[in-house]
Amino acid sequence: MDVVSVEVIGDYRLRLSFADGTVGEVDFSGRDWRGVFEPLRDPRYFARVKVDPEAGTINWPGGIDLAPEPLYAEARRNRARDASAML
């Protein structure tokens, strides 16, 4: 499932929206970024995340990206609450 939007909602936390309408939060705060992912240790760099519409996922400057399938699975486990339901 393709990622269609990303929002940084905290240090190492993202709200992702997918093509099927799923919106969920993914928390990367427990990750130990190593190797090619090491630049993601810097929260300012992590916050530079963008959607790559051609790849259907998120990426960072320098070509770092993550596969959309595990992002989708995590977002489905942590669906964002509908703000209108809280009124």
Can you offer a commentary on this structure?
The chain has about 90 residues and is an alpha+beta fold. Helices cover about 15% and strands about 30% of the residues. The chain has two helices and six strands, in the order βββαβββα. It has helices at about 45, 70-75, and strands spanning about 5-10, 15-20, 25, 50, 55-60, 65. The strands form two sheets. A three-stranded antiparallel β-sheet has the order 1-2-3, covered by helices on one side. A hairpin with a 3-residue loop joins strand 5 (about 55-60) and strand 6 (about 65). The N and C termini lie far apart (about 30 Å). Mean pLDDT is about 90; it is low at about 85.
The amount of helix comes to 10-25%
Largest sheet: 3 strands, antiparallel
Class of secondary structure makeup: alpha+beta
Which word captures the global form?
Answer: globular
In short:
The chain is an alpha+beta fold. 16% of the residues lie in helices and 32% in strands.
How does the SSE layout of this entry go?
Blueprint: E1 3-10, E2 13-18, E3 23-27, H1 43-46, E4 50-52, E5 57-60, E6 64-65, H2 68-77
Antiparallel strand pairs: 1-2, 2-3, 4-5, 5-6
Descriptive key words:
6 strands; disordered C terminus; alpha+beta; globular; 87 residues
